[in-house]
Design brief:
alpha/beta, 2 domains, globular, lyase activity, about 450 residues, 17 strands, Aspartate Aminotransferase, domain 2, cysteine desulfurase activity, 16 helices, 7-stranded mixed sheet, Aspartate Aminotransferase, domain 1
């Protein structure tokens, strides 16, 4: 372990978590009537000290202000140490060996699964490791394709699509929760429909009962938009889907890192999220699925690790989650994922949400204070997270990002893998400032100061 780092969180240790919170409780917790618990200044300082990269100086010896956490979060020492500890102490293949290292690696690997599961109110057997949320959603769509082609036997027929069946998404989706459904529709003859986004950047759930019909077989939507930061009214969409017997998949990449989430109370059938957006490693994500659905789904990737019996003519497959985890496992990444989940659990997701709600208000205030700058999405801090996308009149988003970068403020520019949503608002690109639990008021103040100079620098100020 590097000198001065926090103690390694043992991946196989029993996780300690705060009770998960239902969607309705989450929305209440982000409203002014019931302000959530927040982090004290001392607690925030201790958290920031756990993230070594936050100490980095940029060109011109400027301090770094990191406001791109919606793209990828920074990693605390316990996560970095957990991965290094695996390689230094117990590096071995999992589920394959009888020797001590293999046993220890397997215990750490499965202990991480249990830790991630507990963070979101799930059981370990309901968590499937993937390479990220994009792979997770593709796994589900290809499993449906395989079921449609007759694979998986009688149990899998519940997933099969027919020409004319409907798949419903929303206009707010990241491409990862849109393109795979487009492809599934093309492969099966299903029809893709979508629920629009209103002027405030929120999904118009009042349209759900009109768009979700008896032909709807799947409803897939984002829990929180990665562009507008708006929290979707999941209860309304799940209710509409359930009324017609449709499957529900929720993209929770922007909610699990920032809000208390209990998957069993969301009402979904599948939930996708990624480690790298929640203080964990890159290259690993998770699919949560209802146990009975995972047991009925046909596999997508086949080969080693996911089989029971193989002959020269056929094979039988292991039960979930191993059925969906063919090949060499991302052991170090899973252990790091578990350490990240444990880190968030120890902080308490109510406290994380409370702190980030303060940052949300500060970011919105900072943007509102600059003439000629407008937010794409809700301008009210309620029922949203600290993801603030905006347009600077007369200045391209990429130029805004470059100017802020020169000031040491790191933000995201472009369409954020959500071209239809940007097209909905008549813009090709936005600048996005996004926060995490380590973001402090000084970060927002530096952002506000830099943003105030953008239009003058480019000669478009009034």
């Amino acid at each position: 372990m590097a000198a001065g780092r926090a103690q390694i969180i043992a991946p196989a240790a029993a996780p300690t978590t705060t009770p998960a919170t239902s969607e309705s409780q989450t929305l209440m917790a982000t409203s002014p009537a019931q302000p959530p618990a927040a982090l004290s200044a001392a607690e925030l300082a201790r958290i920031r000290a756990d993230f070594p990269l936050l100490k980095r100086r940029l060109r011109g010896d400027r301090p770094m202000v990191y406001l791109d956490s919606a793209a990828t979060s920074q990693k605390p020492d316990p996560v970095l140490d957990a991965e290094q500890d695996f390689y230094l102490v117990r590096n071995a293949a999992v589920h394959r060996g009888a020797h001590q290292l293999a046993q220890e690696a397997t215990e750490a690997f499965e202990g991480a699964r249990a830790t991630v599961a507990e963070l979101i109110g799930a059981q370990p057997g309901e968590i499937v490791w993937t390479s990220g949320a994009t792979a997770t959603i593709n796994l589900v769509t290809y499993a449906i394709s395989n079921a449609t082609a007759g694979r998986g036997g009688q149990a899998a027929r519940r997933f099969a699509l027919q020409p004319g069946d409907e798949i419903v998404v929303t206009e707010a989706e990241h491409h990862a929760n849109l393109v795979p459904w487009q492809e599934l529709a093309a492969r099966t003859g299903a029809v893709l429909r979508w629920i629009p986004v209103g002027e405030d950047g929120r999904v118009t759930v009042e349209d759900a009962d009109r768009i979700i019909t008896e032909r709807t077989r799947v409803v897939a939507f984002t829990h929180v938009s990665n562009v507008t930061g708006a929290i979707t009214d999941t209860a309304a969409l799940v209710r509409a889907a359930r009324s017609v017997g449709a499957l529900v998949l929720i993209d929770a990449c922007q909610s699990v890192p920032h809000l208390p989430v209990n998957v069993s109370e969301l009402g979904a059938d599948f939930v996708a999220f990624s480690a790298h957006k929640m203080l964990g490693p890159t290259g690993i994500g998770a699919l949560w699925g209802r146990a009975e659905l995972l047991a009925a789904m046909p596999p997508v990737t086949t080969g080693g690790s996911m089989v029971e019996v193989v002959t020269m003519t056929e094979a039988t497959y292991a039960p979930p989650p191993q059925r969906f985890e063919a090949g060499t496992q991302p052991v170090a990444q899973a252990i790091g994922f578990g350490a990240a989940a444990q880190y968030l659990s120890h902080l308490g997701m109510d406290a994380v949400a409370g702190h980030e709600r303060t940052i949300t208000r500060l970011l919105l205030d900072a943007v509102a204070a600059v003439p000629g700058v407008r937010v794409i999405g809700p301008t009210d801090p309620r029922d949203r997270i600290a993801v603030v996308s905006f347009v600077v009149d007369g200045v391209h988003a990429h130029d805004v990002g470059q100017y802020l970068d020169d000031a040491g403020v790191l933000v995201r520019v472009g369409h954020h893998c959500a071209q239809p949503l940007h097209r909905r608002f008549g813009v090709a690109a936005t600048t996005r400032a996004s926060a995490s639990v380590y973001t402090d008021e000084a970060d927002v103040a530096a952002f506000a100061d830099a943003l105030s100079g953008v239009r003058k620098f480019f000669g478009v100020s009034q």
